[in-house]
# Entry
Amino acid sequence: MVAYADAAQLAALHALAPEAKVEALAEGDARKAQLAAAQVVIGPCDPALLADATSVHWFQALSVGVEALRGGTGTGAARPDAEQHAAYQRAADR
# Structure
């Protein structure tokens, strides 16, 4: 699943991994269903997204600062609340 990608970007990713199912990340209930089945997600560093990605093996963040979700103390990173931390930890442990 890929967030914020246009058709050309999705095609380029598919060309790199033709055996993979490459899809744009949907919205609402369709998004939850996609995330539940996805093994790889390329998207924003969002605790809700991570919580829905129950089968993910690889999460590629689109930004820096993801250590805040795991409770790190990177420069300027605020400590996440317990729910955010737990969602990230579940994804990281898969």
Observations:
- The beta strands are 40-43, 58-61.
- Residues 31 and 68 are 24 Å apart (CA to CA).
- The two ends are 17 Å apart (CA to CA).
- The longest strand covers residues 40-43.
